[in-house]
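# step 3/5: fold
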Amino acid sequence: MSKLAVLELKGNLNHQGFFVTLHISQGNITSGTTIDGYLPASTQLLEDLIQWQQDYRHLSGSNRVLKPYKIKHDGTINPIETCTKSAQKLLQQFQSWLRSESFRNVELHLRQELKPNDSVQLLIRTTNSEVQALPWHLWDFIEQYPQAEIALSGVGSYPSFYKSNLENSNPNKVNILAVLGDSKNIDIESDRKTLNQLTEANVEFLVEPTHQKLNDILYEQSWDILFFAGHSQTESEGQGILRLNSTTELTIDEIRYGVRRSIANGLQLAIFNSCDGLGLAHALTKLQLPQMIVMREAVPDFVAQEFLKYFLRAFSQGQSLHLAQREARERLQGMEKTYPCASWLPVIYQPSVTKPLNWFDLFKHEHETTSTEQVIVEPKVAAPTQKSRTLSFGIKFGIVLVCSVLVSSVVLGMRSLGLLQGWELKAFDHLMRLRSGQNIPDNRILIVKIEEEDIQAQRNQGMKMEGSLADQALLELLQKISPHQPSVIGLDIIHDFPFSTELQSHLKEQNLIAICQAMSITSKLPGIKPPEEDFMAQKLGFNNVPVDVDGVLRRQFLGMPPKQFCPAEQSFGFRIAQRYLEDIHGMKKEWVRVSPNRNKKIQLGSQIFPRLERNAGGYQLSQGDANGYQVLVNYRTTSPKQVNLREILSGSLESQLAGLISDRIILIGVVDRNIDTHPTPYSKGLKAEEMPGVVVQAHMISQIISAALGERPLLSWWTEWLETLWIG
């Protein structure tokens, strides 16, 4: 599994130095510690960087820069030798800077957390353009970790606001829009030939297009990769410019709406095989394009051609974007006698924490619609002015009382209108994160996770795939785990088509719960059918989850009336928890009436599950959002144990299966940061890892079982009159 290390630097190189923060994560597990350090100011490093840039720009030859750099020299000095020497001096100063005592703990922690054979993304996050220009790929750490690669990132990005529309895309190929710009003094036909060799790609070439033509094709069709070859440059103020043809130059901002629409339709990667592209990357960061490859400086035409060949060959054969970039970059070293620092030029730029992209992700064309974020403008109440101390005590008391009543009335009025809901929910999340004693995982649950590698393994074995889990793979999995007598098996995977005949006969013997999806009350989505129309309702649960307006998952359904597409009355999690409690503890669900004026409530054992009302706690839910039998989710900070599907099918866990499976709940689902993930109260800042749907279901199941057995309390809230009294 790929690991991500984020090194955030804030400051400047010549005066302040940089305050450094390191975060490390693996999949959905984030390192429990954040390491801080400091890199001192270094005017010498800055001078060496500027000198190298000047010497590099002295080099002559055909390159893809928009306008030649205005640099003079008399020809008596060998520019290649001069550039090579200044590069060596810069590298020595850079390595010395990274060995600063105040940075040592950061590098030590990095090496302790990561193994030399780990696949590692190292994200250098900073807005400082000078630091982004440094040769981070030559850091000793990268040299000693062959599966690691550097990516640059700015701070701050913006979401796309469009819905995905993939009607025009080719679902069986990787869709590439190749823009071939002005080719004056360079050979971009070589790039065309390289792209045409991609047998699993649908490449559409746009040769020297007009501004309108480029904008239209970004709007009207869906693309996985945007490629540009031609002339480009970053101006002194940091703005990137492309030359489309001999008369048209434009910035990313001039096509931002088309690019934003293309991103919403699934655009994952942009490759600018042109000069000086960091300004282009900065502009695309604001549009939230997931990943880009650009050249730091002017790139010689031949170097650009060879890089594209090396990169596409590695990437299309299954290497991740980062490792394909590293392989292509390192192969450029063989040209450095003629083209100094060629391997310094290509760099990945990505605005945020992103799953490592690979060719098969694009080939499957599993794009997520970028959600619209709602911005709530929170009103500020001005503090009342202080009255003169000469007022009598009685008058002052009366003023205080009147002000108290007025302020309380305003607060209660705002609260009833839902204007304070955003603040109150954020406060709830903060209090959830402050709790102690929540880090013990629920060992009654085992998650069999399906990752990209598991999907690819099924394809490699020739299994018929209609989703993320082939029927043959599910059958083999059940045959592996059934002899060890799991309590109940939950299949949290959409399977809205009939099971294979062999699998159907095997399922009759299994204590298995499958999912369907009820029509959404708020969005009016039609829902998802169960595997078969006559699938037993007792083996079915709906997997709908109520999501708050800020996208965070704080509530869960226990039940709702059956719908047209989904006949289940109980949620997937509640059905599994109830089955487990009945089989292992002999505990059945009951309906109780706690008072004559209240609706009946669910009871498991001695635990009553109070239904979440529309105005409970900080909520002011609409009637649609409050439908169904809902409760708050009491998350643990640690998720249940997870194993890979391929580990079980390959037999590598054979000796451990009895201990892992016997009398436990087995949940089967996809664990992928791009598919069915949800923010939770524990999602915050750089550690804002969204939780996969199957892991969310595990937490929900754990809460129900733990509450029924008296192990952990349910989350509760005050009655409305108590809250009014407290505010008053």
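# step 4/5: annotate
The radius of gyration is 29 Å.
# step 5/5: archive (pending)
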